[in-house]
């Protein structure tokens, strides 16, 4: 008696792995190549096992993007609070590439998303470019760019512009947005703090802004960047402090006990005239919930309270500029002066 061929099961496993790498997106060509014909695709769409989200592109996740919240991500075992937003950024970039075909190259903000750079705006239109002549009809499609001298490299299975070019193009895209400053500086801080580009790469990216529309504004934002801000929320909080004339005395200040061990590392700090400190911490969405983490946090908070006042803010506080308002008021009461 003949045994069943393992090939269909193997193709299914390969298809599931491909979907995982593509943020749960698949093109009809990929489905057909893995044994899922057009009739089966239509059947799965009717059963909501696949959701058509673009020209020939289907989503294997039935939850719509607006409903993909941090709570949704935690249910799927994603521990990082910002993981869902990173996923949505990469999904948008992948969708643009899958719709445009194999010749498309991710540029600008879309490329930065695929490089997993943090700080991008919640919503944006991912731009694509072509290293050769664009296919028929692509020029009319939204988000298509033809950057000068565009080259492509492969990362995460995608064709993307090199990171220096993607960074320069992304900053120029943000100059056309009202909220561009906060996102642009957060992106620069992330690239610098995580050393995604070395000094030569940063110089190359800045040189690519030369004589481009929006370059003057982009260079102003660049000068506001500081690798001491280690998360987008910290960048937003620092910018709001700069806007209120209270530049932090220290970023990522480490405080040690008498034996020299580091007990606390604080996002921003100001030295007050009486020798004490004003500490500011920008909390993420995650909460220290385990008993061990709670004990450590209590010891740390008591240690900081002995040395000054501690102000804690959420990422939403930082985004809406509340950090600078409260810090400026506290420092005025303490007769603080910029160093």
Topology diagram in text:
Elements: H1 7-21, E1 25-27, H2 28-33, H3 38-46, E2 51-54, E3 57-59, H4 70-75, H5 83-100, E4 104-106, H6 108-114, E5 128-130, E6 153-155, E7 158-160, H7 163-174, H8 180-193, H9 199-207, H10 215-223, H11 232-243, E8 250-256, E9 262-271, E10 277-283, H12 291-305, E11 308-314, H13 315-319, H14 322-333
Parallel strand pairs: 10-11
Antiparallel strand pairs: 1-3, 2-3, 4-5, 6-7, 8-9, 9-10
Helix pairs in contact: 5-6, 6-7, 7-8, 7-9, 8-11, 11-14
Give the strand tally. Answer: 11
Strand and helix order: HEHHEEHHEHEEEHHHHHEEEHEHH
Radius of gyration: 24 Å
Largest sheet: 4 strands, mixed
Detail the poorly predicted runs.
Answer: 1-7, 285-295
Rounded average pLDDT: 85
Total helical elements = 14
**Strand coverage percent:** 15-25%
- Alpha-carbon distance between the two ends: 86 Å
The portion of residues assigned to helices is 40-55%
Order of strands, main sheet, comes to 8-9-10-11
Main structural class = alpha+beta
Q: Characterize the overall form.
A: globular
């Amino acid at each position: 008696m003949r045994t069943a061929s393992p090939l269909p099961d193997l193709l299914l496993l390969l298809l599931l792995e491909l979907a995982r790498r593509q943020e749960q997106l698949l093109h009809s060509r990929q489905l057909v190549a893995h044994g899922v014909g057009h009739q089966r695709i239509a059947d799965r769409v009717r059963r909501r096992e696949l959701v058509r989200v673009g020209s020939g592109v289907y989503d294997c996740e039935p939850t719509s993007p607006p409903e993909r919240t941090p709570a949704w991500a935690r249910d799927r075992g994603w521990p990082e609070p910002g993981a869902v937003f990173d996923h949505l950024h990469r999904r948008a970039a992948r969708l643009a590439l899958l719709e445009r075909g194999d010749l498309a190259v991710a540029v600008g903000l879309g490329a930065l998303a695929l490089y997993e750079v943090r700080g991008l705006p919640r919503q944006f239109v991912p731009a694509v470019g072509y290293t050769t002549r664009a296919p028929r009809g692509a020029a009319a499609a939204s988000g298509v760019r033809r950057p000068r001298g565009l080259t492509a490299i492969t990362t995460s299975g995608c064709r993307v512009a090199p990171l220096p070019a993607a960074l320069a193009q992304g900053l120029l895209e943000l100059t056309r947005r009202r909220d561009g400053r906060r996102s642009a500086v957060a992106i620069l801080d992330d690239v610098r703090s995580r050393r995604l580009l070395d000094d030569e790469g940063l110089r190359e990216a800045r040189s690519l802004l030369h004589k481009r529309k929006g370059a003057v504004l982009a260079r102003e934002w660049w000068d506001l960047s500081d690798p001491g801000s280690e998360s987008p929320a910290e960048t937003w909080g620092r910018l709001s402090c700069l806007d209120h004339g209270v530049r932090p005395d220290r970023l990522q200040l480490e405080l040690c006990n008498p034996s020299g061990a580091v007990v606390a590392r604080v996002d921003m700090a100001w030295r007050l005239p009486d020798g004490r400190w004003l500490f500011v911490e920008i909390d993420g969405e995650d909460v220290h919930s385990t008993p061990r983490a709670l004990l450590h946090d209590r010891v740390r908070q008591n240690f900081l309270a002995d040395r000054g006042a501690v102000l804690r803010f959420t990422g939403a506080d930082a985004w809406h500029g509340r950090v600078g308002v409260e810090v400026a008021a506290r420092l005025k009461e303490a007769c603080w002066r910029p160093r």
